[in-house]
C-alpha cells in the first residue's frame, strides 16, 4: 500500500508568523542613517526669490543689522497688448467716449460674458494697470470705459 507524504501540510503548520496585524498595510523601507553613502534625500536648496531685497540698518552702537524685505514687482507703465489681438480690440472699444457694454465686447471678441468681465478686472486692472470705470446708462446697462 502507498503512503501519503504530508510534508507540505506540516511545513505550513510550523510557520508561526501572524499576518493578520499587517494585512493591507504596505511595508515601509528603512530610513537611511546620516552616514549613508547613498543619494541624499534632502530637497534641493531653494533659489533666492527675485522680489526680496536685503537692507542694512545702522544700530545706535555702530553695528549694522541686515533685514530682508519683500519688494513689489515693478510694472510697466505702457500697455503691452499686441496690435490686432482681442485684448487690443477690447481696449479700443473701451477708449470710446461712451465706452462699451459687455454685450458689445462679447460680440467683438467672441468671448463669453464671464471671460470679458474677467479680462476687465484681471488683465486690464491688475496686469496692465489700466483703470476701468463702470457706469449704468439710461437703459440700465452697465458700460465700461477706460478712466482718464
Mean of residue pLDDT? 74
CATH homologous superfamily of the domain at 86-146 - what is it? Winged helix-like DNA-binding domain superfamily/Winged helix DNA-binding domain
| Highest-level CATH class of the domain at 86-146 | Mainly Alpha
How are the strands of the largest sheet arranged? Answer: 3-5-4
Q: Which structural class fits the helix and strand makeup? A: alpha+beta
Mind telling me which CATH architecture of the domain at 86-146 this is? Orthogonal Bundle
The shape, in one word, is flat
Strand content: 15-25%
Task: Provide the helix percentage.
Answer: 25-40%
Could you describe the largest sheet, including whether it forms a barrel? 3 strands, antiparallel
Radius of gyration: 35 Å
Task: Output the CATH topology of the domain at 86-146.
Answer: Arc Repressor Mutant, subunit A
